[in-house]
Amino acid sequence: MLGRRQLAFEYRARSTDETTRRTVSPQRITHYRDNWYLDAWDHEREGLRSFSVDRIARARALDEAAIDVDEGELDRHLGGGYGIFSGEPKGVATILFSARAARWVADEHWHSQQQGRHLADGRYELKVPYSAPRELLMDVLHYGSDAEIVEPKSLREQARTLLELALSNYGR
């Protein structure tokens, strides 16, 4: 990365377990939730991507110079949505937390552009932008009955579906 050269490697995606060959221009290394990620310009996909370093294999530096992406564009694209998933935010999630959970959630940093407020009944309302729902859903569902996604309706329905699938694991 410091040599500003393109990098070629094999990448095995966690979500599909598919291995692909990538040629990228490395931009920066990011540490997030005990994992290291390579933020890079992906030449085949012509876009910015984040790669989990532990999923990269057979990496080799190429002779071609890396292209540089403006730091502002990196932040907008890779830091706009919730969590590690990149992209411009597709929406803002409104989540209500119980009074019991409010004591912890109010002190947590979920996103640089989050908005939170204590409600008169002791609950806490949190609004966070997101681009991909997967990580946000995982974090909200972690709170179980102490959290409720209010908006958008599509995210609320995804949470409901996940909870129904989880319940089906336990039979009737």
Highlighted features:
Alpha-Beta Plaits, 2 domains, 4-stranded antiparallel beta sheet, 9 strands
Can you describe what's shown?
The protein is an alpha+beta fold. The protein has two domains: 70 residues; 78 residues, Alpha-Beta Plaits, CATH 3.30.70. The chain has a five-stranded antiparallel beta sheet with strand order 4-3-2-1-5, covered by helices on one side. It has a four-stranded antiparallel beta sheet with strand order 7-8-6-9. A hairpin with a 5-residue loop joins strand 7 and strand 8. It starts with a strand and ends with a helix. The model has no long low-confidence stretch (mean pLDDT 87).
Topology:
Layout: E1 5-12, E2 19-32, E3 35-42, E4 47-52, E5 56-65, H1 71-79, E6 91-97, H2 99-105, E7 115-118, E8 124-130, H3 133-141, E9 147-151, H4 153-168
Antiparallel strand pairs: 1-2, 1-5, 2-3, 3-4, 6-8, 6-9, 7-8
